[in-house]
Amino acid sequence: MKEDNSEEILGPWTLGHFLIGMFAAMIKIPLFWAILLHQLFELWEQNVNGGQRFFNAEIWNTFPFKPIKDTLPWDTFKGDATINSIGDSIAFLIGYQVVILCQKT
C-alpha cells in the first residue's frame, strides 16, 4: 500500500501551490488575505475530518476520478509533514510575488 504524508520540503503538489499563488495575485487578492486563505487551506488539509477525509473519500474510486487516483503516489493520504506545509507556503508566496514583480515592470 502506498502512503503519503509528504515529508520533504518540496512535494508533488508544490507546483500547484506556486500556481495558485500566481492566480491569487492575478485576481488581485491582497497579500494578507491570500496568505490567510492559503494557511487556512493548509490547516484544513491536515485535519482528519477535513482534507484527509476529502482526499480519501470513496468518490475518488469512481469514474471519472479513478484513472487519476490510480496515478497518484499514495493510496491513503495522511496529511503533510510540517516541513512540506512550510515549503508549500513558500511556493505560494513566490508565485504571488512573481506576478507582482512582473506587473511592476
Molecular structure report:
The protein is mostly helical and 105 residues long. The protein contains five helices and two strands, in the order E-H-H-H-H-E-H. The chain has one domain. A two-stranded parallel sheet has the order 1-2. The longest helix has 23 residues. The termini are far apart. The model has no long low-confidence stretch (mean pLDDT 82).
Question: Any key phrases for this structure?
Answer:
elongated; 105 residues; mainly alpha; single chain; two-stranded parallel ribbon
Outline of the structure:
With 105 residues, the chain is mainly alpha-helical.
Q: H/E series, N to C?
A: EHHHHEH
The helicity comes to: 55-70%
**Principal-axes shape call:** elongated
Radius of gyration of CA atoms, rounded to a whole number: 15 Å
The secondary structure category is mainly alpha
Mean pLDDT: 82
Q: What does the secondary structure layout of this molecule look like, with pairings?
A:
Layout (H helix, E strand, L loop, with lengths): L2 E2 L9 H13 L4 H16 L4 H5 L10 H4 L6 E2 L4 H23 L1
Parallel strand pairs: 1-2
Helix pairs in contact: 1-5, 2-5
